[in-house]
Amino acid sequence: MKEENRLRLSQCMIVKNEEDNIERALTWGRDIMCEQIVIDTGSTDRTVELAWALGAKVYYFEWNDDFAAAKNYAIEQASGDWIAFLDADEYVKAEDVGKLFSFIQQAEEQGYCGLQASLFNINYQEEVSSFIKQVRFFKSMPELRYKGMIHEQLELSDGRRFYERVLDASESVSIFHTGYIPAVMEKKQKTERNERILQKALELSPENYHIMGDLGDHYLSKDKQLAEYWYREAVRRIPRVSLAQHDRNVKTFLCLMEILYDRKDEFGLIQIYEDISSRFTGIYDADYILGKFYVTVQMDYQKGAYYLEHAFQLLEQYGNQNYSPMMIKEFLAAWEMLAACHYSNQKLAKCVSCCVGVLKMDKSRSAALELLLRAFAFEKPDSIVQFLGKLYDFKSAEDYHILCQACKNTGSSDVLQLLCNI
């Protein structure tokens, strides 16, 4: 960090009662930071004491229900060339820390003023519940500040498009966030705080469809009727222009589709699907939700296959360029679902292709293996075993057990007999 001409990176965060997280928050990237700035907004636990002990610079900010104001105060205390702004309940994977600094240097050299990473929300089972791409690393510039009382976004004061000047490192740099675990939310009283701030923000900006979408998210887990109301209010106001393809707007449409999916409302689903398709490009979650609806609710495997295949085509074309977190999270399940559609539609070659793709990624997926065996029902047993040998190690006890169980479940007794004789 003391080498000449090396970029200086300041870590900033705003905190309140984070004694459980502050040590991890201040150690994951300590080796690449020139300073660590902690803005305390009223902690009553040992957060401040621990932050001082870890060498952070601690400042105080009187909380006013405005996240942007608190974050901008933190930025003003920073002396680095670039800023890393993560919350106390967020951290970068250890293996990504070195890559992070390299990407920031690359962004600086190529004239970018921000770096985009993947942010994964972790649930109480320590599993990824959702992910989104976000800019948490950015150049220290007087004209670049946060805007918005809650779910704040970085904006340039001169009106230029900041997010067009961001280097995408989302496939290489990952951030993990534990703050949306229900027990944590309850402990920190985040739910009541967020609702209060969102309502206040909407009073100040009554036509703001981003805030309405955030309100929909807020109510989604506890009052779907109210969540639907706010999503529909947002949809009515989202403009039909290129600026509309913002992750927040896309999420509003997709969440509304999920509500209609749960309600088994085919007509409503198609309406929103056609609307989202006419506004945005490459949103494969819309096709995935509709395809899943036809498979799991309507049991219409022709329509299910149509929409699922289209979803995979869009995924191949756009990758993770656009906001579509559901299919990425459920990727193998989606592939298995498409395989089941092909099997029901008697397109066995396509079924086999899907199953092989799944099993190459995870050979323990029993649904894919059993579909594969059923698709091979009229093949010679020795040919089936030979094919399975390309995917499984017959000498592995684990692989052998997986194969035997699948054979028993599908009634593939001839194949099982051959396996037993190997």
Q: What does it look like?
A:
This protein is α/β, with parallel strands linked by helices. It has three domains: 9-179, Spore Coat Polysaccharide Biosynthesis Protein SpsA, Chain A (Alpha-Beta Complex), CATH 3.90.550; 207-329, Tetratricopeptide repeat domain (Serine Threonine Protein Phosphatase 5, Tetratricopeptide repeat); 347-420, no CATH class. It has helices at residues 22-27, 47-53, 67-77, 94-109, 182-188, 190-204, 209-220, 224-237, 247-262, 266-279, 284-296, 301-318, 325-329, 331-344, 348-361, 366-375, 381-388, 397-410, 413-420, and strands spanning 9-15, 35-40, 57-60, 82-85, 90-92, 114-122, 128-139, 144-147, 153-156, 166-168, 174-177. Strand 1 (9-15), helix 1 and strand 2 (35-40) form a beta-alpha-beta unit. It is globular. It starts with 8 loop residues before the first strand and ends with a helix. The model has no long low-confidence stretch (mean pLDDT 93).
Features:
two-stranded antiparallel sheet; 3 domains; 19 helices; 422 residues; Serine Threonine Protein Phosphatase 5, Tetratricopeptide repeat; alpha/beta; Spore Coat Polysaccharide Biosynthesis Protein SpsA, Chain A
Rg result = 25 Å
**DSSP strand tally:** 11
Q: For the record, what CATH class of the largest domain applies?
A: Alpha Beta
- The span between the termini is 60 Å
Mean residue pLDDT: 93
- The arrangement of helices and strands along the chain is EHEHEHEEHEEEEEEHHHHHHHHHHHHHHH
Helical fraction equals 40-55%
* Uncertain segments: none
Query: Overall 3D geometry?
Result: globular
Q: Please name the fourth-level CATH homologous superfamily of the largest domain.
A: Spore Coat Polysaccharide Biosynthesis Protein SpsA, Chain A
Reported by name, the CATH topology of the largest domain is Spore Coat Polysaccharide Biosynthesis Protein SpsA, Chain A
Largest sheet geometry: 9 strands, mixed
Q: Approximately what portion of the residues adopt beta-strand conformation?
A: 5-15%
Query: Helix- and strand-based class?
Result: alpha/beta
**What is the count of distinct domains?**
3
Q: What's the architecture of the largest domain in CATH terms? A: Alpha-Beta Complex
How many helices? The count is 19
